[in-house]
Amino acid sequence: MRLPLVVTVVLLLAAERAATLPFGGTPRLIPGLVEAEDFDEGEAGIAYHDVNAVNEGADYRGPTQVDIERRPDASNGHGIGWTRAGEWLVYTVEATAPGPYTIEIPVASAKAGGRFHIEFDGIDATGPITVPDTGGWGKLQTIRVDGVRVPAGRSVMKVVMDANGESMSVGDIDCFRFSRPPAGTTPPTR
Length: 190
Ligand SMILES: [Ca+2]
Ligand SMILES: [Ca+2]
Hints:
The chain is mainly beta and 190 residues long. It has a single domain, classed as Jelly Rolls. It has 1 helix and 14 strands. Bound molecules: calcium ion (CA) (2 copies). One calcium ion (CA) binds at residues 35-37, 74-76, 78-79, 174-175. Residues 50, 52, 54-56, 65, 67 line the site of one calcium ion (CA).
């Protein structure tokens, strides 16, 4: 069935609107490092959802509702903070192989943090990740998630904040380091 021209144009415009662009122009490579503060370029509701209108932190990348904090203990000198249940962030990534990968995530929380998960192309790849009490907002602790499958090639990684903790927040997040499992833990491929 052929769609009337006007419908086609509207659909094309909708597809255009839904697109996000990788921060800095190129997708983040997996294995490799995805900085939490380097979420995709795009509008609120497309590249991210943040529950309040302002950036509570530092001006790292121009106006955004996402709360980015400058912190000398973090990779790239920045991370995201003031995270709340219901928020999410999108990252365009490109994986050399489907994995499995280990993700190491430096986080900080005063009191027990909340829960988040990570999706690739809409599929939950991690299950719930809990942010522990790291001893203070200024103390990063690296948590680790194993066995994460990522689609080979380009995909959309989405970090979804699921629940606030005793801290009233999910947790401060610095970055996501994707690596192959340590030697000896990978079954032989042939
Ligand atoms: Ca905000
Ligand atoms: Ca960072």
